[in-house]
Amino acid sequence: MAGVTERKPPDLTFESWIDKQIRESAERGEFDDLPGAGQPIPPGAADDGWWLRSALEREGLSADALLPESIVLRRDRERLLENVRGMRSEREVREAVSELNDRIVRWLRMPSGPPVPVAPVRVEDVVAEWKAERAAVRAARVASAESRTENRIPPSGRDGTSWWRRLFGRTP
User: What contacts 85, CB < 8 A, 6 or more positions away?
Assistant: First the structure.
């Protein structure tokens, strides 16, 4: 589009000047081989952010890629306990907390984006909560297993004998 670099003549309004450039470019055939020519407008194109959502989807990114680092760090800090819940070892938990703390410290040294207060996490606090939650889950499993054992019907006959005694007539 060679005409785009021209300066607007002072006697024309911006709208008529732009319309003139578009018309002249179309007459020269500069819009003939554009990608998507002759195809329907994508669904949702009436929405202002459709192109952004389609670009994120095409690139396989989440909307988090658009957030400022300070907000991502704050959210990651708030979700830390939820994220470490499924980890199997204390070492994994400590590594996850250390990685988050490294990101927070890097941001604190050179902050960008909105000033959101975020501070490093105490590793020992997260490890202690992780251990307490795992202990509670184990205790619940043991209690559940015990209640299933108590409610289980023993494999015995009507007279109270075990299947071994019924089968062989003696004790194992």
Answer: 130, 133
